[in-house]
Amino acid sequence: MRSGHPTEQAVGMEYYVSDADGVGGRLREDDADFRVRELERFDTEPVDAPTDAYPHLVFRATLRGWDTNDFAARVSDALGISRERVNWAGTKDKYAVTTQLFSVYGADPDELPEIDGVEIEVLGRAGRNLEFGDLAGNEFELVVTEPERPDNAAAITDALCEFGGLETGRSDSSEDVTSIGVPNFFGQQRFGSRRPVTHKVGLAIARDDWEGAVMAYLGEPTDAEPEGTQEARAFVEETRDWQAALERMPHRLRYERSMLHALAECDGEPGPDQYREALERVPSNLQRLFVHAAQSYAFNLVLSERLERGLPFDRPVEGDVVCFSDTDAPDGLVLPDTDRLQRVDARRIDSVTRHCERGRAFVTAPLVGTETELADGEQGEIERAVLAELGLEPADFDLPGEFGSTGTRRAILLRTDLSLDRDPLRLAFALPKGSYATVVSREFLKVDPIDLG
């Protein structure tokens, strides 16, 4: 185990579990070097199904160079409808080739626009819109550009096999595929790859500091941003002159500009309600993401502390809370079902350990919310200490509108079958929904997160 990159440590990923030097290099030299395809889990009716019963048009889109939110906005603009009528199951990165599902309320197939860098395949209709999480997982294919130590990939793979509690690492499905395990961290992009502030916004919201939340989003310039953007954010922090800041904020930063518009419309100095209303100018999915990022940050800190204490990830200790596998998951994908939880006591630990060894159960940590029940034993000590350090407790997530969260738990170990090609160095694997390809690739490259995309 070795210390993580400082940028990753700032969002709670304190360690790598493999000791070998990384292969180096970078991802996403070209969009085609980072491919993601959703493992779909959403039923549709034929496209000619009656629109009164099935008003949502469902299509599969392959996007090259498109952020999911930007693509949804482009579709809604072309159709002349609210962006809230365009929905999807999982958010994907801009610098990639991604294949994912979308639904549009009240649209016909011939109304869908032709967009550069987009291929659309209409699948049918549905009685409800897609919701975040309406997928089983994602398949990834990543090419590492200019690796400095490509031969180190073998030693890293062996270490990840051992960490995952896998004796041989060899997958049952192929001699060319190795089973590995990594901590199920939330990746850097959860918090902002170049400007990791989303969790700071969420933490301020949970602390009922709406002004602090807005300023964390509008201010806090970073060197990774263009100089003009840095100057605009610094101006916001220094002056609180919302109208003048609006004139300086780049037009491409439309969420920042929406907040500034709301603040500029205030009669006098804004109060907590006005700051909250400014945050509510951004799309509802982004409002939820603020609080989710705060939960994710706490989760990462819990995993890092468990690593530091040397507690296992592949099997429980007394006091842990485990979940069981989803029996309806697609073939080849192990999917934790966090609706099926069990607290592990001395009487159950041997039987639950056997379930974990067979991939039928998973140790969990909390994504804290109003209904979160913390673990017992040493894991419970870790969870309570992290929340105390952040000044949080479950009741703090009883928040208005899209900001509230009941919480859940999440598996702490991410196991996958890895296919590793050498020329070029290519990593291919599948992950359950909500898990990040970068938490696998970071172990292999061990570089600045910016070079992970």
Automatic annotation (TrEMBL):
Kindly report, in one word, the top-level EC class recorded for this enzyme.
Answer: isomerase
Alphabetized UniProt keyword annotations: Isomerase, tRNA processing
Which Pfam family, any one, appears in the UniProt record? TruD
- Family annotation (SUPFAM superfamilies): Pseudouridine synthase
Q: Which residues form the active site?
A: 93
Q: Which residues form the TRUD domain?
A: 181-414
Which GO biological-process labels does this protein carry?
tRNA pseudouridine synthesis
Q: What is its EC number?
A: 5.4.99.27
Write down the chemical reaction(s) this protein catalyses.
Answer: uridine(13) in tRNA = pseudouridine(13) in tRNA
The molecular function GO annotations come to: RNA binding; tRNA pseudouridine(13) synthase activity
The record's similarity note reads:
Belongs to the pseudouridine synthase TruD family.
Report the protein's function: Could be responsible for synthesis of pseudouridine from uracil-13 in transfer RNAs.
**Record-given protein name:** Probable tRNA pseudouridine synthase D
Q: From which source organism is this entry?
A: Natrinema altunense
